Amino acid sequence: MSLGARASRPHTTRAGETPALQSILVYVGIDAVGDGLMKLPFVRALRHAYPQARITWMAGKGHTVFADTLAPLVSGLIDEVIDEAGIGSRAGELLRRPLPGRSFDLIVDTQRRLLTTLILKRIRHRALVSSAANFLLSDRKPAAGWRKPAAMVGQLLALVEVASGRPAEATAPLPRLESAETEADRLLPPGATYVGIAPGAGGRNKCWPLENFLALASRISDGGRIPVFLLGPAEADWGEPIRAAVPAALLPLQAATTVTPMLTIALARRMTAAVANDSGTGHMLAAADIPLVSLFGPTPPEKFAPATPRLTVLRAQEFGGEDMAAIPLEAVANALGL
Questions:
Q1: pTM to 2 decimals?
Q2: What is the pLDDT, as a whole number, of residue 19?
Q3: Of 37, 113, 72, whose CA–CA distance to 308 is shortest?
């Protein structure tokens, strides 16, 4: 499946320089929606490092949401998606050449199973970067003394750094879908100051108490700004208590014609700041490059915090507890500048 019409442009090099990479293959096992959102900084950093290259994304062991659900988010960042390729699982694949007839200047292997990396080496390529077995099979390796980042996003960004020899910068802009931008303007009209609140998460144990979010929203409203609650399907029953407690609050996703990640990110771009639990919505807010306060308790931020330059992490353990309720309202309000 092709995404966008980006063609490899001609490359010029001075004498003695290595020719610029024109084709890159990124290998993943599968990508669920949460995986895809967490990998957006990696995609942006790879495109920033190689702005002219044709990037192919291959899901070898299952489905990638970059082939459908999140395809609009990576249009122009990824040029081609090979979905459910059936590559990288069986030792018998070592006896043949995967993707026959194709070759790549660079293969970036995002998984760490040694057999899979050996299979990927059978694809025609100039260089392969893989952290499997501590970069044992990688053609490019990190500098001496390198330590693996704790965060999964950091580990992916490290692959970009090893491949390019430069710090990874997740600054390639995400595409903007005109229909999502128009809908976002309808839901959050220009002229007001909006502060985002994403109170949900995959598990209620990862959620800061709703009453704390309501108190925070009241402070936002009292300060002349408009609190914007981003509620997913699992939090739909919170709409009524939110409207009752904070009449000025907006719930744009409940009024949207169609809810998509592109719309959520477009809404986030209209906010001056936002607060979220450890959640997929938090990663969408991070993708908008706005100041974000991220709340953690049972899950480690070192591993799951969004990768965004203007991030403040507040963890329950910093305040003497394990439960999310240990994070004080005052600490969150201060982090948002209230």
A1: 0.88
A2: 55
A3: 37
